[in-house]
Amino acid sequence: xxxxxxxxxxxxxxxxxxxxxxxxxxxxxxxxxxxxxxxxxxxxxxxxxxxxxxxxxxxxxxxxxxxxxxxxxxxxxxxxxxxxxxxxxxxxxxxxxxxxxxxxxxxxxxxxxxxxxxxxxxxxxxxxxxxxxxxxxxxxxxxxxxxxxxxxxxxxxxxxxxxxxxxxxxxxxxxxxxxxxxxxxxxxxxxxxxxxxxxxxxxxxxxxxxxxxxxxxxxxxxxxxxxxxxxxxxxxxxxxxxxxxxxxxxxxxxxxxxxxxxxxxxxxxxxxxxxxxxxxxxxxxxxxxxxxxxxxxxxxxxxxxxxxxxxxxxxxxxxxxxxxxxxxxxxxxxxxxxxxxxxxxxxxxxxxxxxxxxxxxxxxxxxxxxxxxxxxxxxxxxxxxxxxxxxx
Length: 392
Known about the structure:
Layout: H1 26-30, H2 34-45, H3 57-66, H4 72-76, E1 83-89, E2 95-97, H5 105-115, H6 119-138, H7 143-154, E3 157-165, H8 171-190, E4 195-202, H9 215-224, E5 240-245, E6 248-249, H10 253-264, E7 269-278, H11 280-285, H12 289-294, H13 304-310, H14 319-326, H15 331-338, H16 343-355, H17 365-377
Helix pairs in contact: 5-6, 6-8, 15-17, 16-17
């Protein structure tokens, strides 16, 4: 349980004025000089105080970003975070690298394919994260190396948390499965504790258009359809250090909730890592920006691009790919499309859909019937709709 101070210490903010957080103290914060705001940011972000989430530190930091008082890497660094690629958009609406304004459309296209389950592109981003972590572990002065050394000395565990939904993996689940497996090899050779992989599912139905929601809308959805987060007994013994992994950082709504819950329940430290940071100012001004990134290459149509994604040898069904396949708008093209998809992938998609209650959704029944009919006709499913056994 957190035992720090009950309020944030802010310059020129006495307890007499009743300020208990950044959102309550906007008038006082506005009175600060630019250097004062930057100093407050630097002093506050070094604290591991879970109450900073509800006290509005993320929003305060976005305001500093808008005033050019901090950079995107400063924003990414909130609550122990780190991102490999920092993306924004230029005046032509193209994705560019925030640091040098060089074209980043190739990264955006890879990210789009990864969001729909392209394992080759998921591996690309996983490899970027692995390189960053590997370099950090080689540096005995880095925060990452210190965390693992502390865990070893104190007999603690290190866990990686990623979010998903029910029985279908998210892009982040698949990506960080790869990351954990490879980084654990290095940790083993260094004689440091290896990472335990923990998935945080949503039990409630997912929000259909989450990537297009504003920050306030995401907060409301998160409150009603929360991820399952470990409670206090998870952290009781031995000590636990938490790493949070997600495929993108935008508003930080999910990451910050995991951060606050972990520290309040007794986590000894918290770090987060993302392959992509999307400029939060873009997301705040144009909530659809994340969805634009998601659909840079895979547009949601049953076209050749989507077919290539699901045709990969080690394809894993992702929630987004299930939605595209079963979308009512795509149903007229579905019967023709299924004949172009390798049967191994189509069977994976069909089984995943049934495992995740899409057959109970009236909008999906007709599409699932088309897929089932095709799989029965080609002998992959029996007449009752069960996968046929192919004994050696």
